[in-house]
Amino acid sequence: MNNLPVCAAVNQTQILRSLILMLHQGFTGITAWVEKLNSDSLPALLIGCTPHSLPPLGSYYDFIDRLWLQDKQFQKSAGKDLFPADKNRKPANKPGKGKKLPNRHPDITKIMAREAVSRDEFPFYYEKLLQQVFCASAVTPSMQRGLIHKDGITLSGDGTCVHTHASPYGHKVCGCPDHGQARCNCPRHYSDPDAHWGWDSDLGT
Asked: What integer is the mean pLDDT of 181-188?
């Protein structure tokens, strides 16, 4: 059994700073950005490196692999599974105006629902470490400094990042307004999860 010591990766903080600075500078390719660092000492110093101690190009991709928790073998096969060459061509006969293409997988929703109910957990939380870094570096310090108030935080389990800002008073679904009745106690439709079910006489609607 191999008992060689495991060496910690170096320049991890510097690489994270470098990627952030890369986006601020408008670079979209890591290769071009590394070339920029090698030719300009100022951004190299900004990320915390001397021009002679810059992380090599491969270290950036190793860093990304550590943060993105997806199996590499799945990454290689997923593209072919999701986008097979023979199933992603443009349709030869397009539907007429106002018509939709036929659903090639009419039972896909049932299949997905069945899979969701049968699983205890979903192993597709690839961005977990990124969320933890964001929480440790931005959310928690902002709360400690009073920039984010604890009472103003909303936790969402479905991936929603912001409030919907839908009307908390709901929308009438009855026919009372059509009969000249402005106020009624009929049930309403609430699209906001924070809205309260019912009718308030002080609202006047």
From this structure: 83
